[in-house]
C-alpha cells in the first residue's frame, strides 16, 4: 500500500505557464537548453550552466548555487507562486490526438525504500548524486518523476469530474504536445484520493529512476538528521505525476552500432541466419510488426529479422523482451558487445526521432548498422517490476515527457 498526500504547489501564474514550463533536464544538452531558454524558462533553474558564458560545467559548485539563486529569483519575481492550501492537480498531456491524465501528488520516500514504489531499471550513482545535490540545495523537487498505478474506477471518476471544469493551464508547447492542468483543492476530495491510494498495492516508476532515487536518499538524510522524526514531515515526500497504467504507451528504443566486429556484410548476414529468418525488404523504411520481429538497416537496405522459435523464452519476464533477444543473439553473440552500459561501439535512439534517424546515422558513415525494436508493453514493464527483475539498459522510452515547472514541491 502506498502513502501519498496533497501539497502546496509552487507554479507559474496562468499567463506565464507556457513560458516557464520546459522540457526536462535530461532530454536536451546544455547548448540546446541555452538556445531554447527564454527569459522565464525553468531551464535557468534545472540547467543553470546555461547562464554562464561560456557554458559552465554542470557539476560545478557555482552552477549548483546558480540554481538556488534562480529559483529564489523566479519566486521573488512572481514567475513562480505557491498555492495557499494543499491540493492535488490533474495534469493532461496530448500527443498525436491521444490524451493521458495524471494526478500530481507527493509520494513518501519510505515507499521507495520498501519496494512499494517499484523500479525496473538500475541507476548510476553519479547521476543520483547530481540530482541529490539539486534537491538538497533547493529543499524542493523542482522536476516531477513519472509513475504509473493500477487502474482505479473511483480515481477515474474523480479525474473526470475535475476535467469537466475549465483548465487552469491550457497550452501547446513548441514540440506540438498539449498540456493542461486542473487544481483539486476540495478538502474532502483530496482526503478521498489519499484514502484510495492507501489501498493501491504499488506504484511503478515509468520515467525518472535517478530523480526518484535521489529524492528518497534526501528524505533518508533528513530523517537521520532529525531526532524527532515522525514520518509526516514535508521532507518525507517528493513530487510525482502518476498515471493509470492503461493510458500509458511505451515507444521503441532503438540501437545503432559503429562496426560489424570485423565481419563483412555478407558474413554478418549469414551469421544472423542461425537465429533469425532474414528477409531483405528494400530501401523503404521497415517497421517491426510484432514481438520478436526486428527491422535492420545495413548498406542502404532494410531487413526484417524474425527470431526463430526456441531462441527466446516467453515465460521469462526478461527473456521475452526483444532488447534481451537482440542483445543475446546479435549484439553479444555476433558483434561482441557484452556490456551496453560501457561499450563505445553502440548508441541508443529514442523512437520519437523516427526510424529515418537510424537510416541517417548509418548513411552518414557514423554507424554501420541499425536495429529497430517492437515497443515494450506496460504489462511487460509491470511484470518485470513485480518479479523484482531489472530491464536491460535503454529499454523503455515514454513520450510525451512531463513538462518541468508546471508544479513544484518545496519541503523548506
Describe the secondary structure blueprint for this structure.
Blueprint: E1 4-5, E2 10-11, H1 17-20, H2 30-36, H3 43-46, H4 61-76, E3 81-82, E4 88-95, E5 98-108, H5 109-114, E6 117-118, H6 125-138, E7 140-141, E8 145-149, H7 153-163, E9 169-172, E10 178-184, H8 187-197, E11 203-207, H9 209-225, E12 237-244, E13 250-251, E14 253-257, H10 265-272, E15 276-282, E16 293-298, E17 301-307, H11 322-332, E18 346-350, H12 355-363, E19 369-372, H13 378-386, E20 397-398, E21 409-410
Parallel strand pairs: 6-11, 8-12
Antiparallel strand pairs: 1-5, 2-3, 4-5, 4-10, 5-12, 7-21, 8-11, 9-10, 13-20, 14-18, 14-19, 15-17, 16-17, 16-19
Helix pairs in contact: 4-6, 6-9
Q: What does this protein structure show overall?
A:
The structure is a single chain. The protein has helices at 17-20, 30-36, 43-46, 61-76, 109-114, 125-138, 153-163, 187-197, 209-225, 265-272, 322-332, 355-363, 378-386; strands at 4-5, 10-11, 81-82, 88-95, 98-108, 117-118, 140-141, 145-149, 169-172, 178-184, 203-207, 237-244, 250-251, 253-257, 276-282, 293-298, 301-307, 346-350, 369-372, 397-398, 409-410. It has 412 residues and is α+β, with helices and mostly antiparallel strands. The strands form 5 sheets. Strands 1, 4, 5, 6, 8, 9, 10, 11 and 12 form a 9-stranded mixed β-sheet that branches. Strands 15-17-16-19-14-18 form a 6-stranded antiparallel β-sheet, sandwiched between helices. Strands 2-3 form a two-stranded antiparallel sheet. The mean pLDDT is 96.
